[in-house]
Design a protein that fits this description.
Layout lengths: L6 E5 L3 H13 L4 E5 L2 H10 L4 E5 L7 H10 L8 E5 L4 H9 L4 E4 L4 H18 L12 H8 L15 E5 L3 H11 L4 E5 L2 H8 L7 E5 L7 H9 L9 E5 L4 H9 L4 E4 L4 H61 L6 H31 L8 E4 H15 L6 E5 L8 E4 L1 H18 L5 E7 L4 E8 L26 H11 L3 E7 L4 E8 L5
Parallel strand pairs: 1-2, 1-3, 3-4, 4-5, 6-7, 6-8, 8-9, 9-10, 12-14
Antiparallel strand pairs: 11-13, 14-15, 15-17, 16-17
Helix pairs in contact: 2-3, 4-11, 8-9, 11-12, 12-13, 13-14, 14-15
């Protein structure tokens, strides 16, 4: 039998919930389990210990599970750590935010050992496909094998393979159990308990019931005490309870409802009415069960997007980079005719644009979701501008534009501190945008200022329409263009700010000009 050397971190402010998850993980053969009560504690552990999988509650004090996830994904050393969010609530926008932040899986409370086992195995398999930085997390046995082994030891609690909703009838009177069992056995999977401790054991098991019909007056432990103890345990806290009792006074009803009961039925029982009430609450149960399915579907779509991105970035970028190198090698051949040189330049520009789109598609998504981390390096800004001007001139040759570069002379290269791809992409977008807006036979100026921080100005004739000036850098803002999606200036702003810079627009109606100012950190001399 393989030894599971995986180390887990369980993060939850509810002690009982931590103990339940720890118990499940130990049954799965976990090597070591760390615990934390909030995100701040969890971060201290993550930065100190080698953790293979994090299971975190969503709603916690001090630092929520979502904030913890974002912090982990933004940390270069921790970003590949598999991370599972656990929640009892469902807000589609919140779940989308969790998925966008890079969660590995979602568990909706209450969950079973089988669901947790499946979750761990799927996360390990998917994470292994994404990166080899962290090894897969082997269970001591496969989850399915483990569950099969433990069926015999849990026969008293395990459910048969039955897709129907399950109903637990708790009553110390056998006659009452028989009547209610016959009433519901055709529609639901009926389970029986004749005392409180047995009911609690079933409700806290790996296969808890969907609804409980609970008698109040029972020896040793009455129904109110059973309900109170159910609400204190994470597995059973959300199970709907219908009290069935001969007690009819208002104080008993108040006590039952205060313990979270969804209904209170008095004896003698109107069986047809009870059937309707159970049926109504089973609809609620079905809706709650669908939450896990919907979370799974949303996550599956996100994973599909990530998988497509992985294929795009890794499988397409290599051949394109090879093609670019070949084109640049051919372009250095002195025997080329002017026409051949122009054609190779156009081909080089096309390949660069495709590579640019491939690289940026993922990086912009990371910036938008707070997962991008800059690895700043010196960037030769003037070389990038020269390359962009050369290729853009070929693109807009029909407009007979003059692209003029004004760069410092005799002071050495102008270097920013940032990301070369980001600088190329944002400046290419801005120069292209200026050329599109500039009138025919006009001039576009690109001015590099040798300041700290560095300043780059891109100026063209013509003014931005008044009605879009205030939201010029917003997503999908565009006017009077036959092509384009309004993402050029938006992505430029994101890329500038991701490098610690700023971007501004200045419009002069008197001079009929538009200027864009980009400020970037300067690399140390």
């Amino acid at each position: 039998m393989a030894v599971n050397r995986s180390v887990y971190l369980v993060v939850d402010d509810f002690e009982v919930m931590r103990k339940v998850i720890i118990g499940h993980l130990r049954l799965l053969g976990a090597y070591k389990i760390w615990t934390a009560t909030n995100g701040v504690e969890a971060l201290h552990i993550l930065r100190r210990e080698q953790i293979n999988l994090v299971l975190s509650d969503l709603n916690m004090p001090v630092m929520s599970g979502l904030d913890l996830l974002k912090t982990v994904r933004a940390d270069e050393r921790l970003c590949a750590t598999p991370f599972v969010i656990i929640t009892a609530e469902y807000d589609r926008h919140l779940i989308k935010a969790v998925i966008d932040a890079g969660v590995s899986d979602l568990l909706v409370k209450p969950f079973t050992l089988q669901r947790l086992t499946t979750c761990v195995e799927q996360v390990c398999a998917w994470q292994h496909r994404k990166t080899s930085k962290f090894p897969t997390l082997p269970l001591s046995k496969s989850g399915s094998a483990f569950l099969a082994e433990n069926v015999s030891s849990r026969k008293a609690l395990a459910l048969p393979s039955d897709p129907r909703p399950s109903l637990l009838i708790v009553d110390d009177a056998n006659d009452n159990q028989l009547v209610l069992s016959d009433l519901f056995k055709d529609e639901y999977l009926v389970r029986l308990a004749n005392d409180g401790p047995t009911a609690l054991t079933i409700c806290r098991s790996d296969t808890p019931p969907d609804l409980v019909l609970l008698d109040v007056m029972m020896p040793d432990m009455d129904g109110f005490e059973v309900a109170r103890l159910m609400r204190e345990h994470p597995v059973s806290e959300n199970i709907p309870i219908i009290f069935v009792t001969a007690m009819t006074d208002s104080s008993a009803r108040w006590t039952g409802m205060s313990l979270g009961a969804v209904d209170f039925v008095s004896k003698p029982i109107d069986l047809s009415m009870l059937q309707l009430r159970v049926s109504n609450f089973m609809r609620y149960v079905a809706l709650h069960k669908n939450l896990q399915t919907e979370c799974d579907n949303m996550l599956a779509l996100a994973r599909l997007r990530d998988d497509v991105d992985h294929i795009t970035r890794h499988d397409m970028r290599g051949p394109l980079a090879g093609a670019l190198g070949l084109v640049q090698l051919l372009a250095n051949n002195d025997t080329l005719t002017p026409t051949q040189s122009t054609q190779l330049s156009l081909l080089e520009e096309t390949v660069l644009q495709v590579l640019n789109m491939i690289n940026l598609s993922s990086e912009i998504f990371k910036i938008e979701t707070g997962r991008f981390q800059l690895n700043a390096q010196p960037v030769m800004i003037e070389d990038i501008v020269q390359c962009i001007v050369k290729m853009t001139s070929n693109t807009f040759v029909s407009k007979k534009l003059v692209l003029h570069i004004d760069a410092p002379v005799g002071k050495g290269p102008v270097q920013a501190l940032g990301d070369a791809l980001f600088c190329y992409s944002l400046l290419q977008n801005l120069v292209k945008n200026a050329c599109e807006a500039a009138p025919i036979q006009s001039q576009v100026d690109i001015v590099l200022s040798d300041t700290d921080p560095l300043r780059i100005m891109i100026k063209n004739s013509g003014t931005v329409p008044v009605d879009i000036r205030n939201n010029f850098f917003d997503k999908f803002t565009t006017r009077n263009k036959t092509s384009g999606n309004g993402l050029g200036t938006y992505s430029a702003k994101l890329l500038v700010e991701a490098q610690g810079g700023q971007i501004e627009m200045e419009v002069s109606d008197d001079d009929n000009t538009t200027s864009l100012w980009v400020t970037l950190p300067r690399a140390p001399s």
